[in-house]
UniProtKB/TrEMBL annotation:
Coiled coil: none annotated. It catalyses: a 1-acyl-sn-glycero-3-phosphate + an acyl-CoA = a 1,2-diacyl-sn-glycero-3-phosphate + CoA. Belongs to the 1-acyl-sn-glycerol-3-phosphate acyltransferase family. One of its GO terms (biological process) is phosphatidic acid biosynthetic process. The HXXXXD motif is essential for acyltransferase activity and may constitute the binding site for the phosphate moiety of the glycerol-3-phosphate. It comes from Priestia megaterium (strain ATCC 14581 / DSM 32 / CCUG 1817 / JCM 2506 / NBRC 15308 / NCIMB 9376 / NCTC 10342 / NRRL B-14308 / VKM B-512 / Ford 19). This is 1-acyl-sn-glycerol-3-phosphate acyltransferase. It holds the Pfam family Acyltransferase. One of its GO terms (molecular function) is 1-acylglycerol-3-phosphate O-acyltransferase activity. Its EC number is 2.3.1.51. Residues 34-145 form the Phospholipid/glycerol acyltransferase domain. PANTHER family: 1-ACYL-SN-GLYCEROL-3-PHOSPHATE ACYLTRANSFERASE. The lineage of its organism: Bacteria, Bacillati, Bacillota, Bacilli, Bacillales.
Length: 196
């Protein structure tokens, strides 16, 4: 279902908006699990990230409210999404992504939440998961249209990948490691946005 949906959406967006530019795809780790953290404003950037990583499937972390309706819940699960309480992320948030990474899968986290505290919590979650699983974080930014109208306006789409970020194992200075990595991710996001 995931591969089929990705191909269909790729064809649909290409017909509406033309070819998407994927920059620095060679920076992605080969044949090993990783976490990709990407900027996020609408469903379009989620789809574009999936297309950019194709044929590698991504398992997306999505807010639990999206899973309230049975049909949507089934669809999201088939599209490799799993729920998380973004407003109150607890220890259980780590369980599913750690299991996926252990199976050498790729986990996608979109830390640009609706509130600053939510954004920081999601970034922190990605950092803690990467540290626990001993996998790298790949930063990515989406630049382009966020509405159907903008897509039809042929505004160009870009997914830009940044350099690998390695998170050390957490010790007594967990807070310092988390804060420093958080700053690195934020800085990289801004630098990548300036590439276009």
């Amino acid at each position: 279902m995931y591969i089929f949906a990705t191909r269909i959406l790729q064809l649909l967006l290409s017909s509406m908006n033309g070819h998407m530019n994927v920059v620095n795809k060679d920076k992605l780790p080969q044949n090993e699990p990783f976490i990709v953290v990407c900027t996020h404003k609408s469903w379009i950037d989620v789809v574009c990230l999936g297309i950019a990583l194709y044929p590698t499937p991504i398992h997306f972390m999505a807010k639990k409210e999206l899973f309230n309706k049975v049909f949507i819940k089934k669809l999201l699960k088939k599209l490799n999404a799993f729920p998380v309480d973004r407003g109150n992320p607890g220890p259980s948030v780590l369980k599913i992504p750690l299991q996926l990474l252990k199976k050498k899968q790729v986990v996608g986290i979109f830390p640009s939440g609706t509130r600053n505290s939510e954004e920081k919590a999601l970034k922190n979650g990605a950092i803690h998961i990467a540290s626990r699983a001993s996998v790298p974080i790949i930063p990515a930014v989406y630049i382009g249209p966020h509405t159907i109208r903008d897509l039809l306006g042929r505004k160009k789409r870009f997914i830009i990948f940044g350099d690998t970020i390695h998170v050390p194992k957490m010790t007594k200075d967990k807070e310092a490691v988390t804060e420093a990595t958080n700053e690195v991710i934020s800085k990289v996001f801004e630098e990548l946005k300036g590439n276009i």
